Amino acid sequence: MVDISLTLGTHRDVGDLAADSLFQIFHVRLSCRTVLLCSPREREVNNGEFVHKEYAEIIDNDAMYGFSDEGFDIYADYGGLREKLPTGGHSKTGRALALLYDGRYSMFKSYVCQDQNLGQNGYSQIVDDILADEDDLNPNHDCMVYEAIHAKLDRGAGMTYQDWIQYTLIRYVQQLGPSVEISK
Question: Is residue 112 a contact partner of residue 47, using CB atoms and an 8 Å limit?
Answer without folding.
Answer: yes
